[in-house]
Amino acid sequence: MEFFNYQVMSATGTKKRGSIEAKNETIAAKRLKQEGYYIIELEAEQNREQRSFFKLLSKVTYQDLAAFMRQFATMIDSGLPLASSLSLLAEQFINSNLRSIINQIKEDVEQGNMLSTAVAKHSTVFPDVAINMIAAGEEGDCLAAVITDLATYFEKQLQMRKKLRAILAYPLFILAVACGLLLFIFYVVLPLFTEVFATYNLNLPLITRSLLQITEILTEYWLFILLGLLTLLITMVTYFKSKQGRDLLDQLLLKVPLINNLILKIMITRITRTLGTLLLNGVGLLAALVSIEKIVNNKVVEQKLKRVQQAVKEGGSLRNALESIDLLPEMVLQMVSVGEETGQLGEVLLKVADYYEQELETDLELITSLAEPVLILILSIIVAGVIISILLPIFNLINYL
Fold it and tell me: Would residue 128 count as lying in a domain?
């Protein structure tokens, strides 16, 4: 006996999901038909679990969300009903996980649920900013405009991520080449010279002896070194995934020179763009502050943003609340104050986001331009040291001969 998951429809058109125990799929289907149901879907529970596993592998990215929102807005704006738009969209995406989620949202909408309610059931895929904006768009009868803004928001976030990856790609490539070159020297080149030096019983300089000892350790104990590094890596990852470790890591990242400045600018960009987009689309300030709490990806900053929420809830101004957490630069606080006084806080925050995006891009390009020669210099010094340590005994050997 095994369990089968099913989706059926009654004679009145009511859909139903559940599971049934039977010897095989044929008997399960026969029993459901005898009960007067039309079978829409029927499969073994094990197959469903396997399919769920593969769905997890097909992760929904910001690029998927941006494309979904852009096409969704176009369809709604052209007058297509929500359910029809979702049905068409489900057929256009290769990502099986996203297709499944769109179909589930469509079913909820067809059953009379609000779109924001249907989307909220998939909060692991759709961030709070999307759920809150869709809810505000439904209340204000401007859903197409809101979803268009959401598409722009996701595209901006995606563009920033692509820039970060592109800027960091070359230094990481140089680092990888350097590591590969060093491994080649230690495991291929130096062992050859070790045999030559041993044959002639040369009196080796200190730098050569040290290098050969390192090579010997790496050659003989490479398995233990590899296991040690893997153990250390797994231990660190496990610790930093724990609450205590994550809190410590977040605190350290905000204190390390250079890195803390970059992280702060990334957070300012995310906070101001998200908050500005939400406010411009009719989301209340408190609800918007709750949404931005989860996008910073730093527990220390999350706690500070909760204090901002509480201060605003008690009637304080946003500028004073932000000033009290001692996180944002004075320029941002002044812009927030101007936005509150003029009643254009959303527009002002988006301008701040644009400014800090440019600042962040400039800083990253500067750091990258400095990192490249530094990495090359370090690599050159290491290679030069290896070459000198090899040439010195060779010169001695020539004199010996």
Answer: no
